[in-house]
Structure formats: C-alpha cells, structure tokens
Amino acid sequence: MNTEYRHIPLILASSSPSRRRLLVQAGIDPIIRPSKVDEPAVLAEQAGKSGRHLDDLDACERVGVLAEAKASAVQATMDAVKDAERRSRGELVTFRPLNQSDSGASSRNPMSQVLGAWGGMIDAERGPLLLGCDSLFSMDGVVMGKPHKPERALERLMAMRGRTGTLVTGHCLIDLATGHRARAVSSAQVIFGDYDRATMQAYVATGEPLEVAGSFTLEGLGSAFIQGVEGDPSGVMGLSMPTLRALAQELGVSWSDLWAERVMPERQPADGSTHGPEGLAAPAENVHQPGDGWVDCACGKRHWGLNGAAGVLLARRDVRSGAPVSVLLQHRARWSAEGGTWGVPGGAISDGENPLEGGLRESYEEANIRPEDIQVVGSYLEDHGPWGYTTILAFERPGHHVDPRMNDDESIALEWVDLDKVSGLPLLKAFGQDWPHFRQRLETLAAEG
C-alpha cells in the first residue's frame, strides 16, 4: 500500500483570526493572503448583471458571490507571480560561505535549470488550495452585516434577544495548479438568550461586535449570550470545517494532505524562542505564516525563515541609455533583525513556495512591487546549507512603473535610491557586503539588454 504523504498548502484569503484559529485547531497551518475586495462594488455588479436591485440579493447569494470574489482576487495575484516566474531569465549565482571547498568561489547555473530544481507552485500538479469565505447573518429575512457603529450594534443585539436568526457562510475553494474550483454555502440557526440593555451596552463598549457579521461572536465575549446553535457551529465562526473537507474531496484532495507537518525539530530554534538576534519580537498582532521562525545556523547566527528567505532587488533604468540609475530599498522596522538598516524588501519563504515565488510575494506584500510590473533577470543565493537567502535581481518592465507603498508594519520607509548613494546608507550587513557585486551585475545585465 502506498502511504506516501504530500503536504498541500492552504491559502486563506482572509485576515479573520477566527477562521485561522479554526484551521489551526483542525491541524492546518494556513498561509494568510487577505483579498482586500471592495464588497459593496462586487455585490452591486452581481445585482446589475441580473437586472436586480442590491436589496433583492438574499444572504446565501451574497456570501457565495463574495467568497468567490475574494478567492479570485488572491488567485489573480498568485497567477501574476507565476507569470513573472515564467518570464524570468538570467543566472543564479550561488555562494556557499560555510563550504570550505568553495574557497570563496561562486558556482553558476542557468536560472531555468534552477527553477526546475526549486519546484514550487509553478511545478505543482495539485495545490496549493486557495479558500475564500464570507459570512452574513439574517433575521426574518433581513440581512445584518457588520454594524460598524456602537449604536447600531446595540439596537440589533436588543432586537435579537430571545430570538433565532440564520448565519450563512459562503466558501470557494480553488486548486491553483489546475484552476478548478468548488463552491458551497453552509447554514446554521443561532438562538439568542435573554439579557438586559446594560449588559449589552457593556458588551458593545468592548468593541467586539462592531466588525463581525450580525454583531456577535460565538468564540468570544458574545458566547455567553448565545443559547444554542442548530447546525454546524464552525460555520457560525466564519468557516464550516465539514464543508471545507467536502470541497477538498470534490477537488480530489485528501483532507489529511492539508495537515501541517507538526514535528520538525531540525527546523525549530533550539530554545523555542520567537525572538530574533537582538532579542526583539515582531508585534503581537502580526500574523504567523507557515515558514515563519528562526533557524540557528552553523555559522553561529540566527536567521529568519524555516524554509529560507528571499527578497527582490529592483532596479530602475534610464529611459534613454537603459543603464540602471536607482534601486528600491526598504528601511527596516526597528523590531526586525538589524532593525533600522536598509536592505531589499523580502522575508521568509512560505511552505510550498520556491525562493523566486517567495521573494516576489514578499516584495509585493511589503513594498507593493507588483510581479506584472517587473522582469526578473537573475538571482544570487547565499547558501548556508540548512538555510539560505535568495536575492532576486529585477528591472522595471518597459512601459511599467513601480510605486512603492508600505503594505505592512515591516518598513520605516521605502525609497528609490540612486546607485551612487546606496553605499552611504546604513545597510543590512549581508546586503552591504554584496552590494558592489549586485551593482556590477545589474549594470552588466542592463548592458546585455
């Protein structure tokens, strides 16, 4: 009997802590990729297509449409990464500082060969799976979205006292390797208990019910006010686990293939610490991603990324001469390793990614470097054996313009820096050592066209 295990990553197109918690409790460590979909615009478009008014869309139709829109939005960004990967050219230069036999020399391999060796999403026959979800609560046929305002939340909660409403959750699961998708909507009846206005005022004052469907949560402070649930309770928390399992089976994926690899001691810090070399930790609200963590290296240092790390060194070229004139650099957050220094946007490679995919994704998330706007022309790997950092070399594509934007809290600033001014900045140590080589290589690649 063939018992070979192949882990298939799951990408969650949501930043919902409740949905992530449900997956983790079920043995799945999801990759978090929020969709940032304009929900009112999506629903208005759906109503317009069918010649109806927005109010004519019932809760089940709304959550189904929004779940698919969220999944599709993230799929588009992942497809852009794969397209940039297919367009990539150049060479990978590998340096192994811990291998004495290299004697400081670099070994060169064509990037096309290396990509095949790396694997990743572009070579996957199945997966990663991408999940979009959306939930709505209704009572007496009236849809109740997120209240946003305290007075609206209080009014709703008092109207729901002692009554029963319906919470529906839409699910859209996409296999990124094949493009196949499966959809379903789960439903559960929520029975509210008896409570007084003063208690609800105190509950609303906590802020918990303001940004959740129906103005309540089952897993938080609101759990004390819910008398019972008829149907799947996980669906009330924004993701029906039985529904997700059925959708995975519909796409031909075994549920156990989604379970995370829990026991990997060789990839964990010896002391289990989440703190970096300077003893600083990321902000508590930062989302943990598969692949996040510190590795104690044979070089005596602690490096970020259980699967290694990668980033993009993006150069802008002179319109007339084609010569590189500036590079896009990140002023690193104080809490990060060597915080306050300058380097390239990048970070830990997630499960299921190769270094090129990880670098392209991280640079988009941190600096808004869109994969469709750049041309990958080479890369450099500092290989420490159990850990490595890959610097992706790229130019802006002709006719494209990259406008950097801080999409998270990992940057103090993002700036296009003139080549002659880079060495005058307080650079990340490894980047500073490699910068003369990177500059020479970018100039050579630009001259080659």
Automatic annotation (TrEMBL):
Keywords: Cytoplasm, Hydrolase, Nucleotide metabolism. PROSITE patterns: NUDIX. InterPro entries: ITPase-like_fam, Maf-like, NUDIX_hydrolase-like_dom_sf, NUDIX_hydrolase_dom. It catalyses: a ribonucleoside 5'-triphosphate + H2O = a ribonucleoside 5'-phosphate + diphosphate + H(+); a 2'-deoxyribonucleoside 5'-triphosphate + H2O = a 2'-deoxyribonucleoside 5'-phosphate + diphosphate + H(+). Residues 305-442 form the Nudix hydrolase domain. Residues 267-287 are annotated as: Disordered. Belongs to the Maf family. This is Nucleoside triphosphate pyrophosphatase. It comes from Bifidobacterium asteroides.
